[in-house]
Design goal:
162 residues; alpha/beta; two-stranded antiparallel ribbon; six-stranded mixed β-sheet; Rossmann fold; single chain
C-alpha cells in the first residue's frame, strides 16, 4: 500500500467525557492507539489538523483540509471526521486529483464500549488498499462514493442517495 497519510479533524470519534457535570469534549485523536492495538503491518503518518465537531466546521476549515490532502506526499489519505459534516467535506475533496481519499468517523465515541469507531477505521483501512483514485466514505460496514451518500439521522447510519 505504501505509506498511508492520516489526517484527524475531531468529531465524535475523538470525544471524551470527563464527569457527570461536564459535556463531551473533543480530545486527542484515538486512531494511533487503535492502529497500534490492531498491530497493522503498514506504515502511516498521522497529522492532527483540528479538533472540531463537524457541526462547527466552516468552509475555511474545509479549505484547510483540502489543502493538506493536496499537499500530502502519499497517494492514499484517510481522514477521521465528524459524521454531520463528512459528506460536505468529501465534496470539497473531489477537487483533489491523483489521490484515494477515505473519510470515516463514528456515531459513538471510541471511548465507549459500544463504539463503531474500530469497525469503521478497519473498514476504511481495508477499503483504501483496494479503491481507485477518488473520494469515499467508510461508515456502517459500507464504502460509499462521496457523490452518492447521505447521513440518515433517523436511522443513525449512512446510506446511498439512490
Amino acid at each position: 500500500m505504501g505509506k498511508l497519510q492520516i489526517f484527524t479533524t475531531g468529531g465524535t470519534i475523538d470525544k471524551v467525557y470527563f464527569d457527570a457535570l461536564s459535556e463531551f469534549q473533543i480530545g486527542a485523536p484515538v486512531i494511533d492507539s487503535i492502529l497500534r492495538c490492531m498491530n497493522v503491518g503498514f506504515e502511516y503518518t498521522i497529522d492532527e489538523l483540528m479538533r472540531l465537531d463537524s457541526l462547527d466546521m466552516t468552509d475555511d476549515h474545509r479549505r484547510q483540509i483540502q489543502q493538506a490532502v493536496a499537499a500530502a506526499r502519499s497517494q492514499k489519505v484517510l481522514i477521521t471526521h465528524g459524521t454531520d459534516g463528512m459528506v460536505r467535506t468529501a465534496s470539497w475533496l473531489r477537487e483533489v486529483p491523483n489521490k484515494t481519499i477515505v473519510l470515516t468517523g463514528a456515531l459513538q465515541p471510541a471511548a465507549f464500549t459500544n463504539t463503531d469507531a474500530v469497525f469503521n477505521i478497519g473498514s476504511a483501512i481495508g477499503a483504501i488498499q483496494m479503491l481507485t483514485e477518488g473520494v469515499y466514505i467508510a461508515m456502517n460496514g459500507q464504502i460509499f462514493s462521496a457523490d452518492n451518500v447521505l447521513k440518515n439521522r433517523t436511522e443513525r447510519r449512512f446510506e446511498s442517495v439512490v
